[in-house]
Amino acid sequence: MKITIEAWRQDGPDDRGRFETYSLDDATPEMSLLDMLDVLNDHLVDDGRDPIAFDSDCREGVCGTCGITVDGRPHGPTPNTPSCRQHLRHFPDGGSMRIEPFRSNAFPVVRDLVVDRSALDRVIEAGGHVAVDAGTAPDADSQPLPHDEAEKALDYAACIGCGACVAACPNGSAHLFTGSKLVHLATLTQGKQERGRRAKAITGQMEEDFGPCSTFGECATVCPAGIPLDAISAVGRESLRFGFRRKAD
Questions:
Q1: What CATH number should be reported for the domain holding residue 13?
Q2: Do 78 and 53 share a structural domain?
Q3: Interval 117-131: pLDDT, tens
Q4: Where is the 4Fe-4S ferredoxin-type domain positioned along the sequence (predicted)?
């Protein structure tokens, strides 16, 4: 399988960057996008050239480390699939693709396809946690949670924090990511006591680094975990809830 790759090269955060074109003749349909970059980098190194820098870790679609933009779409053409699970069988033999990093003001480029996604970490640090008593673990049935509520919490906890939703949004919004954390923790019994403070802290940090929701909806179609759009409404709902309860107090 032959494929032409137009890849973004940027030597560092202060470099302007540029696209460079490469031709790969020994690709196979079974390769993922990251496998393809591995093979391309082998050829570049053999030729005495710098390999393309990109992020990867588990390559099983669960860690959220990988993330590249393919032909203008975060992760690639297959909906709700991370970069490491996008395969060349979805591209024509002899075709071409343009690969670049996730594009967002909140994600400055470090080198080539690698971006700094620490803005997402700051949202989690602001309130993506629960306080628990240290010591002996409580009995499993001491804090009962209905099955449907547990399943709901797990569905929203599935977010892997890759940042594709931010890159897909024209405004660089992180509402889908933030909403998934708010719903997940507000649903669990352990997270209810800090619900209001968490909403205030998380949304405040989100607004510092990311743009407003664009109502574009593309965030949900690129999310590898399939987080639904209604997670976005949780951002406003949880913030309003905190405000009303504070006035009542």
A1: 3.10.20.30
A2: yes
A3: 999 999 999 998 887
A4: 150-179
